[in-house]
Protein backbone atom coordinates (compact mmCIF):
# COMPACT_ATOMS: atom_id res chain seq x y z
CA UNK A 1 0.00 0.00 0.00
CA UNK A 2 1.08 3.58 -0.57
CA UNK A 3 1.47 4.30 3.14
CA UNK A 4 4.03 1.53 3.54
CA UNK A 5 6.00 2.87 0.57
CA UNK A 6 5.91 6.44 1.90
CA UNK A 7 7.11 5.31 5.31
CA UNK A 8 9.94 3.26 3.81
CA UNK A 9 11.09 6.10 1.56
CA UNK A 10 10.89 8.61 4.40
CA UNK A 11 12.94 6.43 6.72
CA UNK A 12 15.46 5.61 3.99
CA UNK A 13 15.96 9.35 3.54
CA UNK A 14 16.20 9.94 7.30
CA UNK A 15 13.28 12.37 7.27
CA UNK A 16 10.56 12.88 9.85
CA UNK A 17 6.85 13.00 9.21
CA UNK A 18 7.05 16.69 10.09
CA UNK A 19 9.70 17.24 7.39
CA UNK A 20 7.37 15.80 4.78
CA UNK A 21 4.32 17.61 6.13
CA UNK A 22 6.21 20.92 5.98
CA UNK A 23 7.33 20.20 2.41
CA UNK A 24 3.75 19.42 1.37
CA UNK A 25 2.21 22.28 3.34
CA UNK A 26 -0.04 19.98 5.38
CA UNK A 27 -0.25 18.99 9.04
CA UNK A 28 1.88 16.18 10.42
CA UNK A 29 -1.33 14.36 11.31
CA UNK A 30 -2.52 14.41 7.72
CA UNK A 31 0.81 13.07 6.53
CA UNK A 32 0.75 10.41 9.26
CA UNK A 33 -2.64 9.29 7.94
CA UNK A 34 -1.03 8.75 4.52
CA UNK A 35 1.54 6.44 6.10
CA UNK A 36 -1.02 4.38 8.00
CA UNK A 37 -3.27 4.19 4.95
CA UNK A 38 -6.15 6.11 6.53
CA UNK A 39 -6.01 8.74 3.78
CA UNK A 40 -4.66 8.73 0.24
CA UNK A 41 -2.80 11.68 -1.22
CA UNK A 42 -4.36 13.33 -4.26
CA UNK A 43 -2.62 13.30 -7.66
CA UNK A 44 -0.84 16.64 -7.13
CA UNK A 45 0.51 15.46 -3.76
CA UNK A 46 1.67 12.16 -5.27
CA UNK A 47 3.64 14.09 -7.87
CA UNK A 48 5.23 16.29 -5.18
CA UNK A 49 6.16 13.20 -3.15
CA UNK A 50 7.61 11.44 -6.19
CA UNK A 51 9.73 14.51 -6.97
CA UNK A 52 10.81 14.79 -3.34
CA UNK A 53 11.97 11.18 -3.18
CA UNK A 54 13.34 11.16 -6.76
CA UNK A 55 11.11 8.26 -7.77
CA UNK A 56 8.24 7.87 -10.19
CA UNK A 57 4.61 7.95 -9.10
CA UNK A 58 4.54 4.31 -10.21
CA UNK A 59 7.07 3.48 -7.49
CA UNK A 60 4.92 5.22 -4.88
CA UNK A 61 1.89 3.20 -5.95
CA UNK A 62 3.84 -0.06 -6.18
CA UNK A 63 3.66 -2.72 -3.51
CA UNK A 64 7.26 -3.78 -4.22
CA UNK A 65 9.90 -2.71 -1.68
CA UNK A 66 12.42 -0.06 -2.65
CA UNK A 67 16.12 -0.62 -2.06
CA UNK A 68 17.50 1.46 0.76
CA UNK A 69 20.10 2.93 -1.55
CA UNK A 70 21.33 2.36 -5.08
CA UNK A 71 23.88 -0.43 -5.28
CA UNK A 72 25.15 0.14 -8.82
CA UNK A 73 25.05 2.59 -11.66
CA UNK A 74 25.42 1.41 -15.25
CA UNK A 75 26.55 -1.99 -14.01
CA UNK A 76 29.32 -0.54 -11.81
CA UNK A 77 29.02 -1.31 -8.10
CA UNK A 78 28.97 1.65 -5.73
CA UNK A 79 31.12 1.73 -2.62
CA UNK A 80 29.59 2.71 0.70
CA UNK A 81 31.28 6.11 0.38
CA UNK A 82 29.83 6.67 -3.10
CA UNK A 83 26.38 5.63 -1.93
CA UNK A 84 26.60 8.04 1.00
CA UNK A 85 27.66 10.89 -1.32
CA UNK A 86 24.76 10.17 -3.65
CA UNK A 87 22.35 10.10 -0.72
CA UNK A 88 23.65 13.46 0.55
CA UNK A 89 23.54 14.95 -2.96
CA UNK A 90 19.88 14.03 -3.24
CA UNK A 91 19.15 15.90 0.00
CA UNK A 92 20.62 19.16 -1.33
CA UNK A 93 18.22 21.74 -2.73
CA UNK A 94 18.05 21.21 -6.50
CA UNK A 95 18.99 24.86 -7.10
CA UNK A 96 22.27 24.29 -5.24
CA UNK A 97 23.20 21.06 -7.02
CA UNK A 98 24.76 22.96 -9.92
CA UNK A 99 27.48 24.18 -7.53
CA UNK A 100 28.27 20.60 -6.55
CA UNK A 101 28.36 19.52 -10.19
CA UNK A 102 30.65 22.43 -11.11
CA UNK A 103 33.02 21.63 -8.26
CA UNK A 104 33.20 17.94 -9.16
CA UNK A 105 33.82 18.86 -12.81
CA UNK A 106 36.60 21.22 -11.71
CA UNK A 107 38.24 18.48 -9.64
CA UNK A 108 37.91 16.02 -12.52
CA UNK A 109 39.60 18.42 -14.96
CA UNK A 110 42.37 19.09 -12.45
CA UNK A 111 42.90 15.35 -12.03
CA UNK A 112 43.12 14.85 -15.79
CA UNK A 113 45.66 17.68 -16.12
CA UNK A 114 47.75 16.27 -13.27
CA UNK A 115 47.82 12.86 -14.95
CA UNK A 116 48.92 14.37 -18.25
CA UNK A 117 51.72 16.26 -16.51
CA UNK A 118 52.87 13.08 -14.73
CA UNK A 119 52.87 11.13 -17.99
CA UNK A 120 54.91 13.87 -19.68
CA UNK A 121 57.51 14.02 -16.88
Walk me through the topology.
Blueprint: H1 2-12, H2 17-24, H3 28-35, H4 43-53, H5 57-61, E1 72-73, E2 76-77, H6 80-91, H7 97-120
List keywords for this structure.
121 residues, mainly alpha, two-stranded antiparallel ribbon, 7 helices
Structural summary, described in words:
- Helix content is 65%, strand content 3%.
- It contains 7 helices and 2 strands.
- It has helices spanning 2-12, 17-24, 28-35, 43-53, 57-61, 80-91, 97-120; strands at 72-73, 76-77.
- A two-stranded antiparallel ribbon has the order 1-2.
- A hairpin with a 2-residue loop joins strand 1 (72-73) and strand 2.
- Helix 2 crosses helix 3.
- The termini are far apart.
- 8% of the residues are buried.
- The model has no long low-confidence stretch (mean pLDDT 85).
The coarse silhouette is: elongated
- Helix and strand succession? HHHHHEEHH
The number of E-state strands comes to 2
Which structural class best describes the helix and strand composition?
mainly alpha
Sheet-strand content, in percent, reads under 5%
Number of helices in the DSSP assignment: 7
Main beta sheet strand tally, sense and closure: 2 strands, antiparallel
Mean pLDDT: 85
Give a quick rundown of the structure.
By secondary structure, the protein is mostly helical. It contains 7 helices and 2 strands; from the N terminus they run αααααββαα.
Amino acid sequence: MIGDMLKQLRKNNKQTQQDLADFLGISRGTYAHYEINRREPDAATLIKLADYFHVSVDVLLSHKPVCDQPKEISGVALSAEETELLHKYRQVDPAKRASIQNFVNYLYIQEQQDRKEQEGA
